[in-house]
Amino acid sequence: MFDLTFLGTAATTPTLERGLPALLVGAPRHRFLIDCGEGTQRQLLRAGTGLRRLGHIFLTHAHLDHVLGLAGLIATLGLLDLRGGLTICGSEQTLRFVAQYLGAIWPAGRAPVPIGFAVLTPGVILEERDFSVCCFPVQHRGTESLGYRFNAAPRRHVDARRMAALGVLEGPIRGALARGEAVTLPDGRRIEPEAVLQPPSPGLSVAVIGDTEEVDTLVAPVAGADLLVIESTFMDADANLAAQRGHLTAGDAGRLAAGAGVGRLILTHLSGRYDPNAVRAEAAELFPNTCVADDFDKFAVTHPARSPASVDLPREDLLQGDGNPAPGV
Hints:
Blueprint: E1 2-8, E2 22-27, E3 30-34, H1 40-46, E4 56-58, H2 64-67, H3 70-79, E5 86-90, H4 92-105, E6 115-119, E7 123-127, E8 131-138, E9 145-152, H5 160-165, H6 172-178, E10 183-184, E11 190-191, E12 205-208, H7 219-222, E13 227-231, H8 239-245, H9 250-260, E14 265-268, H10 276-284, E15 290-292, E16 298-301, H11 315-318, E17 319-322
Parallel strand pairs: 3-4, 4-5, 5-6, 12-13, 13-14, 14-15
Antiparallel strand pairs: 1-2, 1-16, 2-3, 7-8, 8-9, 9-12, 10-11, 16-17
Helix pairs in contact: 9-10
């Protein structure tokens, strides 16, 4: 249902191995870019995802390492004559900064591709037939920061035994019932979908959080997500420094994942001062189902995996990796 491509996993400054923050989320008929650090257009090409069908860019906040790549991406889209419009989404504070930044390069209406701005407030921001997207507030150094959650629509499965008992055979009639439509059988009986459908099961859910300085207010917004992506800039040994700079430690991320009962935790926004294996190990002490993302890692979230945090699910139960596996997984 959802696929993720990590385009940049560094914190604040790029390294030889890691670009600045950017994450591509694929959903049915849509692709969403979350944040756009410098060089994101090159990362998209290196990842093999291409530049087409980028309709929305969701920004977490206005710090430069998360937004400075917008101008380069827009210029590249124009040079390649990919003129589909972009809608840049974020908080009012974030978009005010971005509009000034881009306006200094291209006066109003002169950008090489059509650009729109959508000011977001917490709640549902996009609804499609198969999924919805909502945003929620995140605390980070006085910014108007947002996190994002992608929710697949609840699914209802047909009860084969009930179908057989009612004499419903394979074919268009069974398909109509599966879609929630009432049908009339050849013998004149009318069958309502409620007679053959099982109770709805929750759809898949992915939560993405950029920079944040605390986790207590995030438990409810990410509760029960099949996958949580969040920063892990520091380790617990440097908790004081993390607090001063408004970031999490790996331990903080693990505590959030455990408290929220998510299915899997992926750490990103990594500092070059730490060994990624040590970062993963610190979070995994509190939440075993943890991995660290590398640039160009790809994951497909295809099966619900909400479970108690004490259960260490095999990677393939939730995530099907495509690319370099994260260290320690």
